[in-house]
Amino acid sequence: LTHRDHAQSVVFVTAHGKDGLLPHDWTRLARADQTVVVYMGLRFVGEIAAAAMAQGVPADMPIAVIDNGTRITQRVVAGTLADIGAKVKAAKLKGPALIMIGSVVTLRGTLGVEGVALSEAHEMELVAREGL
């Protein structure tokens, strides 16, 4: 979520309220030094990206959608604000999911934590299943 070379803060926001998509100030939220995490937003990822771009957030801003995070069935779809809607639709994600917006998303493949989390989750599932 944070990394000294990318984002020094993180903010969590909900995608929608009772009456639909919330009108967030994306230029304030999607700053270069901050990661935005959106929850309850999988259905609205295209609209979220479009709203951010309409408010001046660069179309090439990195974004990732983490589906079933920390579970053995975890899937991650990464892209930019410009293409994430189509990528998520093609992936047919079902949720639950978190959306991460910011340059820290580009570090995903370099940190090596995704495989560890999934390995530990798989190990715990095996222990539970076998009653060890």
Report the span from N to C terminus.
34 Å
CATH class: Alpha Beta
Q: What structural class do helix, strand and pairing data support?
A: alpha+beta
Question: What is the CATH architecture annotation?
Answer: 2-Layer Sandwich
β-strand number: 7
* Tally of helical segments: 5
- The side-by-side strand order for the widest beta sheet comes to 1-4-7-5-6
- The figure for the number of domains is 1
What would the average pLDDT be, to the nearest integer? 80
Relative helix content: 25-40%
Radius of gyration: 16 Å
The main β sheet shows up as: 5 strands, mixed
Sum up the structure in keywords:
single chain, 132 residues, alpha+beta, Methyltransferase, Cobalt-precorrin-4 Transmethylase, Domain 2, 5-stranded mixed sheet, two-stranded antiparallel ribbon, 5 helices, globular
Provide a quick synopsis of the model.
With 132 residues, the protein is an alpha+beta fold. 33% of the residues lie in helices and 25% in strands.
List the helices and strands and how they pair.
Elements: E1 9-14, E2 16-17, E3 20-21, H1 26-29, E4 34-39, H2 45-54, E5 62-67, E6 75-80, H3 84-91, E7 97-101, H4 108-111, H5 113-130
Parallel strand pairs: 1-4
Antiparallel strand pairs: 2-3, 4-7, 5-6, 5-7
Helix pairs in contact: 2-3
